[in-house]
Amino acid sequence: MNLLSIEGISKSYGEKVIFKPISFGINKGQKIALIAKNGSGKTSILNIIAGEDTPNEGSVIYRKGTRVAYLAQEPNLDPKLTVEESILQADNPTIKIISDYERALENPEDQEAYQKAFEAMDQNQAWDFENQYKQILSKLKLNDLNAVVGSLSGGQKKRIALCNALLKQPELIILDEPTNHLDLEMIEWLEAYFAKEKLTLLMVTHDRYFLERVCNEIIELDEGDLYSYKGNYSYYLEKREARLIQESVEAHKTKLHFKKELDWMRRQPKARTTKSKSRIEDFKIIKEKASQRRNEHQVQLEINMERLGSKMIEMHKVQKAFGEKIILDQFDYMFQRNDRIGIIGKNGTGKSTFLNLLTSNDTPDAGKIVWGETLKFGYYTQNGIKAKEGQKVIDVIKEFGDFIPLKKGRKISAQQLLERFLFDRKKQYDFVEKLSGGERKRLYLCTVLIQNPNFLILDEPTNDLDIVTLNVLESFLLDFPGCLLVVSHDRYFMDKIVDHLFVFQGAGVIEDFPGNYSDYRVYEDSKTEERNNSNTNEKKIKKEWKETPKKTALSFEEQKEFKKLEREIEKSEKLKEEIQNRFSTESLTPKEIEELSIQLGKLEQELDEKTTRWFELSALQG
Asked: What is the arithmetic mean of pLDDT over 526-553?
């Protein structure tokens, strides 16, 4: 079943074309990822499909009645509201249904309106809305419903927006970088949720494990054309490589044909026949195809790193706390020249504070940090680049110098450096404010790397970078000869470039784990399995003890009655709890209150009688 069709949409700002007309459709059950280089207009495409923006041409046609939810990169939440108010004041059809029902209760004389509102509550399962949102918020570790949005972290705000999207019970969810700002536990929960739920998804994400495990189709926007791959990320990589090889073969054939036709053109007399004029027109098309080049620059930097002495950073009995919240507790570590360390842990466990201590942006409460004399930091933070107004891309780089020293005495100019970071000569003279989020991050990354550091710290470097740039960055980091420290929620990235982890577990506990992220997950899963097996064995022993045959004075009929009473008491207890909950959670009419009170009184009397009889029978057992 087709949910929507995108027909020939395009977007441009003045003379700047973001993307040319593109068309595709989305069917129920598809889980599609849109892949493209930074600056290709991925977010613009999602905004147009979600109705947040309009195309210059073309249209987006939804199947009538399709419910859609959109999770934007940066959620638009009122900072003054609490977490719960952000849910209850969201644009959600269920909230309107509940509001209509509450209004109908205030006007009991309008029976028709009440009946209509009551049926709407039933049809949309709105009776249980409060339980639904509290359950999802709990899963997303948002347990303080009274916390003010303005005081929350980026990850917590993203989770509120995610909760709102899921509560709409949409047929189609549109997601722009859903894993940004989420910690690893949340990413894995979301991954498992989307993998098992029968939802239709359209997403932009750089998280390659997420792509691999959730998506069943990849749409790639490459050089203005759309290519569809019916499979996950591994399948896409395989088929994309085959396509590029085929394109290369075709390009080679076209160039040979062009040379042949060019030779004919040069040999032709000025007088043209009708046939030759047709061939001349064909020649123009062949020439255009032969001149086409793939914009597939590779970032290849062999930076001549500053000399690194034997001493890097030593941390001795370092302590740090904010009030009662302990970040570091007697932490010891001596960084080595070729350390490649990944830092993981839940949000709020002190990862950023740790980096600030290392880089002298904060001071420890106790203990000592010693820095080597030859140490030179390169620090990529989550704050990104702060360009001056009217500043161009080339100007940002030139603030660090006109050239960068490379190995073997070679040099590279600022312009050449930018080209290697996928900024062509025309793009270098764009204003920084015109760059996409991913392009700004790429430019910032370039400014950090060209400072020629020997101790490189990257705090969430993969956010907003396209997959092409990520592959290039990984290649560079694998050859980086200095010390590398990375905070990232990108599991694929971590697996590829780090060889041991600092696992921040909270309350000052930091585990030094020898291995990458996947190794750590295997280790954690094995520990969980051991605990589960231990609990199972304990329960089995308890169960065997409980099931030890007892001497009984009960007759066969009494034993049947005893078992029946256990079932009935359990059922009555549940019913009693449901009635009591209705008194506290629903707006009841006086008549309903009277009826429920009578029902509750009878139920409690029956429970007393059954419980008394159960005790009598229980006492007869030896």
From this structure: 62
Longest dimension (CA), the chain: 121
**What does the DSSP 8-state code read for residue 329?**
E
Same structural domain, 255 and 338: no
Over the stretch 17-27, which tens digit does the pLDDT of each residue have?
A: 889 999 999 99
CB of 87 closer than 8 Å to CB of 167: yes
Which residues are within 8 A (CB) of 452 and not within 5 positions of it... i.e. 6 or more apart? 303, 304, 305, 306, 376, 378, 404, 405
DSSP label at 306? P
Its sign, for the CA torsion 117, 92, 48, 390, is positive
Q: What is the CA radius of gyration of the chain?
A: 32
3-class state of residue 468 by DSSP:
helix
| Same domain, residue pair 414 and 358 | yes
Q: What pLDDT, on a 0 to 100 scale, did the predictor assign at position 366? A: 95
Angle at 413 between CA 407 and CA 414, to 5 degrees: 120
Quote the domain boundaries for residue 282.
238-291
| Residue 281 pLDDT | 64
**Cα–Cα distance, 173 to 577 (Å, whole number):** 36
Residues 581 and 526 grouped into a single domain: no
Indicate if 598 and 479 belong to the same structural domain. no
Q: Please indicate, yes or no, if residue 59 is contained in any of the structural domains.
A: no
Count of domains forming the chain:
5
Number of other CB atoms surrounding residue 201 within 10 Å = 22
Two tokens, residue 79: 């900072």
pLDDT averaged over every residue in the chain: 83
Tell whether the torsion through CA atoms of 206, 208, 212 and 214 is positive or negative. negative
* 3-state SS assignment for residue 280: helix
Q: Is 523 helix (H, G, I), strand (E, B) or coil?
A: helix
Work out the pLDDT band at 551, boundaries 50, 70, 90: very low
pLDDT, position 486: 95
Residue 350 lies in a domain: yes
609/533 same-domain check: no
Bridge-based pairing state of the strands 2-13 and 57-62: antiparallel
Q: Which of 491, 492, 487, 490 is nearest to 503 (CA)?
A: 487
Overall pTM surpassing 0.85 (yes/no): no
**pLDDT at 211 (0 to 100):** 92
Where does residue 62 rank: exposed (0-12), middle (13-18), buried (19+ CB within 10 A)? middle
